[in-house]
Structures are given as C-alpha cells and as structure tokens.
Write a structure and sequence with these properties.
Blueprint (H helix, E strand, L loop, with lengths): L18 E2 L1 H8 L3 H9 L6 E4 L2 E5 H5 L1
Antiparallel strand pairs: 1-3, 2-3
Helix pairs in contact: 1-2
Length: 64
Amino acid sequence: MSNGELVTSPTTERELPVLLTTDEVATLLRTSRKAVYCMAERGQLPGKTRIGRRVLYRSRILVD
C-alpha cells in the first residue's frame, strides 16, 4: 500500500448483517461459541434478540 491507501478490516460496521448468529459474534469477538453463550446468559452482550428458538444479536448495538 505505497500510495497511502488504508487497509480496512473485513468486519467494518457497514459490512455486517443486521442480525448476527452466535458463531458470527464469536468470530467478531475472537472468542468461542461457549464464551458467547456465557456472556449472553450473564447479560454482558447487548443487542440480544430471540426469534423463536434462535438467539441473534443486533450488530449495530453490539459494535457500539
């Protein structure tokens, strides 16, 4: 990148889907699925939404 271009990470806010799965949150936070489940159970992850049996996370709230 010699001409002053900035390298952006592949997970910028604009590229994230509105709702993230547990696996996507784990990848974003660089942790395991089990750790995400534990953090969610303790109320440490904002933006948690249940749709039926699925637990999803609002990406904008989580990133903020």
